[in-house]
Amino acid sequence: MGRVQLFEIRLSQGRLVYSPGEPLAGAVHVCLGAPLPFRAIRVSCTGSCRVSAKANDTACVAEEGYVNSTLSLADKGSLPTGEHSFPFQFLLPATAPTSFEGPFGKIAYQVRATIDTPRFSKDHQCSCAFYVLSPLNLNSIPDIQQPNVASTTKKFSYKLVRTGSVVLTASTDLRGYVAGQVLRLQADIDNQSGKDTGAVVASLLQKVSYKAKRWIYDVRAIADVEGAGVKAWRRTQWQEQILVPPLPQSALPGCSLIHVDYYLQFSLKVPEASVMLPVFIGNIAVNSAPTSPQPGPGPPPGAQCSVVPSAPPQEEAEAGATGPPHVADPVSLFAKSHVQLWPPAAFGAVPGAPEPCPPGSGPASHLLPPALCVSAGATVPYFADGSGGPVPSTSTWILPPEYSLWAPPCEAPPSYEQSCGSADAGPTPGS
């Protein structure tokens, strides 16, 4: 065996996750099979953000440092045979951003120890990675409780002939969410034309911006839900919900090179129309209900969900009616599909991970402890309260989601078909 049989860094209590402004303590352990002369034994704590111009490229084009401290554990001398331990402690900066890793950049922290040996001898090095979590309190975001609504109007043309317009209005119950919380969304579609619209789709999007020589944007869909189209001369309302998976927090405060944003995109396929609603993902949930009127949650299972159309069906219009007759029959818009894209390391798959919030609980009662994630571009591991200890990620970074391999959560939110019962395709002419 060699002279150095063991050389490693052990953090106190086996911790991997720390908060900004917290002391990081540990010890450097050395086990020697023979005496080892040295010039110095040093330990350093570093943390930085590095951004590259190409995906998975090691060449750095922009860098930002957060911590760079070095301690001398022993001066020139000789270590005798046996085991040795050198304790150390660093104070992390109060402004250190949360750890993150994506295809174009990462925020990483590590402790590195070095035994500087005499000339012509081999230096010995070892390192230990750790993670920083700076919880994002959603209540600190301005206007977080204000209505989240957007609308657009699109002219509807068929074979170069304008037949009317479609008004798409989208809204959500909140502006900010935490992992495991139910995101309730609603779309009001007013089809003021003689043609049926295409399906309506709502997507939760993640946008990560990297500041290299130019801004690089990485956009991916986290979840998709789809509803049926709207008949001609109909106005209807579509409600759905998405269970928010573990995701990196918004913004990454303290870092100027990487920025994380989330959006809800509502779109119609025919005619092509879309609206975007910004949403925030944090670690501490909004602790009170919105102060302004908001669209309520979906109806309970078995309830009928309907609206009254504001214009006659196309068949009546084409029959030569002189004015739009009143149609009182309700029209239900049902969900065609509900794709809850869930990463392999979901709540139930990671020991010690916090349990998801039951779909019926409100934001005021849902206060999860800050949860670290391993999804959608982040490599921070989960941590557990109690004796379970931290559970590190098994991958150096998570690849873009492979949706075909993802399974739905154990208790997915009910689909719109289940909430509204049997779907009615709409009234027939003359009803």
Secondary-structure-based class equals: mainly beta
Strand content: 35-45%
Tally of helical runs: 2
CATH architecture of the largest domain: Sandwich
Helix proportion range: under 10%
Q: What kind of sheet is the major sheet? A: 6 strands, mixed
Mean pLDDT: 75
Order of helices and strands: EEEEEEEEEEEEEEEEEEEEHEH
User: Using DSSP, what is the number of strands?
Assistant: 21
How far apart the termini lie comes to 91 Å
- Would you state the CATH class of the largest domain? Mainly Beta
Structure description:
The chain is mainly β. It has 2 domains: 129 residues, Immunoglobulin-like (Sandwich); 257 residues, Immunoglobulin-like, CATH 2.60.40.640. Strands 2, 5, 6, 9, 10 and 11 form a 6-stranded mixed beta sheet that branches. Strand 12 and strand 13 form a beta hairpin. The longest helix is centred in the C-terminal third of the chain and has 5 residues. It is elongated and about 90 Å long.
What key phrases describe this protein's structure?
Arrestin_domain-protein; mainly beta; 42% strand; six-stranded mixed β-sheet; Arrestin C-terminal-like domain-containing protein; 431 residues; Arrestin_C-like
Helices and strands, with pairings:
Elements: E1 4-11, E2 17-18, E3 23-32, E4 36-38, E5 40-51, E6 62-74, E7 77-79, E8 82-91, E9 100-102, E10 105-116, E11 124-132, E12 148-158, E13 161-172, E14 176-178, E15 182-193, E16 200-211, E17 215-227, E18 235-243, E19 258-268, E20 273-282, H1 314-318, E21 335-339, H2 416-420
Parallel strand pairs: 2-11, 14-20
Antiparallel strand pairs: 1-3, 3-8, 4-7, 5-6, 5-10, 9-10, 10-11, 12-13, 13-15, 15-18, 16-17, 16-19, 17-21, 19-20
Protein name: Arrestin C-terminal-like domain-containing protein
Biased composition (Pro residues): 292-302
Pfam family, one: Arrestin_N
